[in-house]
Specification:
It is a single chain. By secondary structure, the protein is of the alpha+beta class. The protein has a domain at about 90-135. Helices cover about 15% and strands about 45% of the residues. It is built from three helices and ten strands, in the order αββββββββββαα. It has helices at about 1-30, 210-215, 220-225, and strands spanning about 75-105, 105-110, 110, 115, 120, 120-155, 160-170, 170-180, 190-195, 200-210. Strands 9-1-6-7-8-10 form a six-stranded mixed beta sheet. A hairpin with a 2-residue loop joins β4 and β5 (about 120). The longest helix has 27 residues, at about 1-30. It is elongated and about 120 Å long. The two termini are about 25 Å apart.
Length: about 230
């Protein structure tokens, strides 16, 4: 029974280790042309057929008084990244408790009760102290720009955007990915919108290559520093 239990524990440890290795490798597998950030399909850019010989085409009307802000599927919008977050948290806890219980030696008929040189007095004393403190401080900042495309227009007029930018350097590649929802009113006349105006925003910045790999923990280090390591 002990041998079977030992084999079972070893098998469980191997499964956990393999799972961590696979998950770690999957997070490093970043490549361009991710379909989740790809431009809109070409078939959606085909103009609708003419109706009844009219010159007006739905969603393709242009007037002399309208600006050229993006509002159709396939149009291009430039997102200016103005992300800055700062968080700070501290906590101090102090708990103290003192207890003291004493009982005098009993007397009987005015004389102290004792036996064999020992008295029957009782005394109990206890003291508990706990002090804890924690401090967390984090700052993040991301600036720049990325041009994305409109992939869908919701029934209420909200624009769904997404896109990615890859920059190839001499020691690797860096990428920025953005997706979310934008109101047409928040788009400026030159087709720019701040990242702080994007709803349900998903903004990712990272890199691949030798420089990014050297700044990342190894697979075994990730395992030993994860919650799966029991010690």
């Amino acid at each position: 029974m002990k041998i079977n239990s030992m084999y079972r524990n070893s098998y469980t440890s191997i499964v956990i280790l393999v799972t961590v290795l696979v998950s770690a490798c999957s997070t490093l597998d970043e490549k361009p042309n991710d379909p989740n950030y790809a431009p809109v399909a070409i078939d959606k850019l085909i103009p609708p057929p003419a109706r009844g010989g009219s010159l007006y085409q739905e969603n393709f009307g242009v007037t002399l008084f309208d600006d050229h802000k993006a509002y159709r599927i396939g149009d291009i919008i430039t997102v200016t990244l103005n992300e800055s977050t700062e968080s700070s948290k501290s906590a101090d806890t102090t708990v103290s408790k003192d207890s003291d219980i004493s009982m005098a030696n009993p007397t009987l008929f005015g004389r102290t009760v004792s036996g064999s040189g020992y008295t029957l007095g009782l005394g109990v004393s206890s003291e508990n102290d706990f002090t804890g403190s924690s401090l967390s401080d984090q700052r993040n900042s991301l600036t720049g720009s990325i041009t994305v495309t409109i992939i869908d227009v919701l029934p209420n007029g909200i624009l769904k955007i997404r896109g990615e930018k890859w920059i190839t350097l001499n020691q690797g590649e860096e990428f920025i990915r953005v997706s979310g929802l934008v109101r047409s009113e928040d788009i400026s006349a030159d087709n720019q919108v701040s990242s702080t105006r994007i709803a349900d925003a998903r903004i990712s910045y990272g890199g691949v290559g030798s420089l990014a790999d050297s700044n990342r923990q190894g697979v075994l280090s990730q395992f030993f520093n994860s919650r799966w390591w029991p010690f």
